[in-house]
Structures are given as structure tokens and as C-alpha cells.
Specification:
By secondary structure, the chain is of the alpha/beta class. The chain is about 40% helix and about 20% strand. It is globular, with a radius of gyration of 18 Å.
């Protein structure tokens, strides 16, 4: 077995807002099982597909996709700050292969990543992990967004390349599912927010604390039925997970950006990371989902899903 996959939601409110013991116990148990899945697979390298939330990537240069041949965690929401253990040779090789496949992808020698990449890695490998990685940024908040077909083609190109390496490669997909957190939008934003969305790197501790306070309060209001943000949509989440589990990935080509946002919330676009990872796995042929979990967690403002999958023997 050469390729395996872990797809999981992330949430900055994990460990902060309490959804109750039943949900917590379920998620913790599922994470334990996912970690066991990873240990059994014993990856030699991990490719992680994930978004950013205007913490590392900004409108001063907003690529649709970017592969990090070097990366640093910004350390938001309790994740560890600092350089990440990127396999630079593998990353550069992957950039060349994706470009040769006809998919435009940027390369960064210092990709700044936030909890959208760091949290799932720390969930699965622990803090201060040494697992060699290649981070693949998949834009999900910087409008305008391209069609889902391009995301699938990116994943397929990544999968074809990594399958040729003769190494055990784990794909991680981070994001989603349906959720509508208070992520600012450029259109109509006041001047100070526009400036931050264009280049908001290295905020002061006070500015970061204020942003996080707003998110925490939004999650608590959402749990109490506040109507300011779109509700979690379990039907949308099930459709996404069912489609990915079925292997009918070309069905996602018909998912318009308008439908995703209407059904899954403004940040429902993070399902792009899931599609890319499953498309990478599909490059080896048929695959099977070995486990699947889901909770609609109002306190975390997200439909929290998790899946593991492997190639079919």
C-alpha cells in the first residue's frame, strides 16, 4: 500500500468552547482511531492540503494553489509557531510535476500556514512533530475562487506524482465541512480591514487576541441559536462525504461556488481540500473508506467530519 488518506475538519474553538461530553468523547475517540490508522500505515512523507484564514496568505498575493518547499506556522489558536519539517526536495519535485500536468500552482520557500494546516498535523503527530511534510495551500476564502474541477485536477496531478515515489505517502485534508464563521470579506470591508486582508502578517498579540475573542464569542452565540451566521447543514455535509466515499469525484465538478456557499456557508469552500486529497488517492485507482465520523457542533460553528481511506488491495 503506497497511499493513504485522513480527512478531518479543524476548528479554532476545539478545546475552548465546550459542546458537551458526548461530542467531546466521540471526537477524542475518533482522533485516537485516526492516529492508530496513521501509525499502522507508518507514512514516510505526508502531503497536507489545507486553507488559510488571512493569517498567512493575503491579497497582496493570493494564489489558487501553492506548494510550500519551506513553511512556517504562524502559531495561531494554540498551535506551535515556527518552521515546519518540510521535505524541500519532494516539494520542489511536486511543483514541477503539477505544472507539467497543466495545473498552475505557485511555489513558496516560506509558506506561512495557520491552524488550517497546523491543527490536523498536531492532532495526528503531536506538537513538535518531526514527520516530513509537503504543505499544499488550497485557497478557500480569498475571492474569487476557481471551479471545483480545477481542484480535482490539482489533486490528481499530486497523486500521480507522489505514487511514483515508491514511498508510503499519507494525504491529509483539512477543513470544512459546512460552517460560516466570522471570516472577513474584502468586498465592502472598512479601510482598516481591507488593509489587514491585503497584508496582515505579524499582528500584535493584542490584535490577535481581539480577533480570537470575536470568534469565541461568535461560537457561543451560534450555540445559543444566534442568527448572525449560517447554520450548520448536515445534508450538505453528508452529500460531500457520500460523494467522496463513492469515488465519483467528477460529480463535484458540478458543484458551483454559489451552491457551496448557499448550502455550506461562506467557509464551506474548505471542502476543496477534501476533494483534492481524495482526487490524489484516486490516482492509484479504486479506494475504500475505512472509517467515517460526523458531528454538527454548534459550539465550534462547524459540521465536524472525519474520514480515513486507503487504496483497494
Amino acid at each position: 500500500m503506497t497511499l493513504a488518506l485522513c480527512a478531518l475538519s479543524h476548528s479554532p474553538l476545539f478545546g475552548i468552547n465546550d459542546p458537551g461530553p458526548q461530542t467531546i468523547n466521540g471526537v477524542v475517540t475518533a482522533l485516537d482511531e485516526m492516529r492508530a490508522f496513521v501509525r499502522d500505515f507508518d507514512p514516510e512523507i505526508t502531503v497536507v492540503f489545507g486553507p488559510d484564514h488571512f493569517n498567512g496568505v493575503f491579497y497582496d498575493m493570493m494564489p489558487a494553489f501553492c506548494i510550500g518547499s519551506g513553511a512556517v506556522s504562524v502559531g495561531d489558536w494554540g498551535t506551535e509557531p515556527g518552521p515546519l519539517p518540510v521535505d524541500r526536495t519532494a516539494a520542489r519535485q511536486l511543483v514541477r510535476a503539477v505544472l507539467e500536468a497543466g495545473v498552475d500552482v505557485a511555489q513558496s520557500e516560506r509558506l506561512h500556514v495557520d491552524h488550517g494546516v497546523s491543527q490536523p498535523l498536531e492532532f495526528l503527530f503531536g506538537k513538535h512533530y518531526t514527520q516530513q511534510i509537503v504543505p499544499v495551500f488550497v485557497n478557500a476564502v480569498g475571492l474569487p475562487l476557481g471551479p471545483m474541477q480545477r481542484v480535482r485536477l490539482l489533486g490528481e496531478a499530486v497523486g500521480r506524482e507522489v505514487a511514483s515515489w515508491g514511498r508510503r505517502v499519507l494525504m491529509i485534508a483539512s477543513g470544512g465541512l459546512s460552517h460560516d464563521p466570522p471570516v472577513p470579506r474584502l468586498e465592502g470591508a472598512p479601510p482598516e480591514v481591507v488593509a489587514r486582508l491585503i497584508d496582515g502578517r505579524n499582528p500584535t498579540p493584542e490584535a490577535r487576541a481581539l480577533r480570537q475573542k470575536r470568534v469565541i464569542e461568535a461560537g457561543r452565540a451560534h450555540a445559543l441559536g444566534g442568527a448572525s451566521f449560517q447554520k450548520i447543514n448536515p445534508e450538505f455535509d453528508a452529500q460531500v462525504m457520500d460523494t467522496l466515499a463513492s469515488g465519483r469525484l467528477t460529480d463535484a465538478d458540478a458543484w458551483t461556488n454559489e451552491w457551496i456557499e448557499r448550502s455550506g456557508g461562506h467557509s464551506g469552500h474548505e471542502i476543496r481540500a477534501w476533494l483534492a486529497a481524495f482526487a490524489a488517492l484516486s490516482s492509484r485507482g479504486r479506494y475504500r473508506v475505512t472509517n467515517r465520523w460526523y458531528w454538527p457542533v454548534d459550539e465550534w460553528m462547524t459540521g465536524f467530519g472525519m474520514m480515513t481511506a486507503t487504496e483497494e488491495d
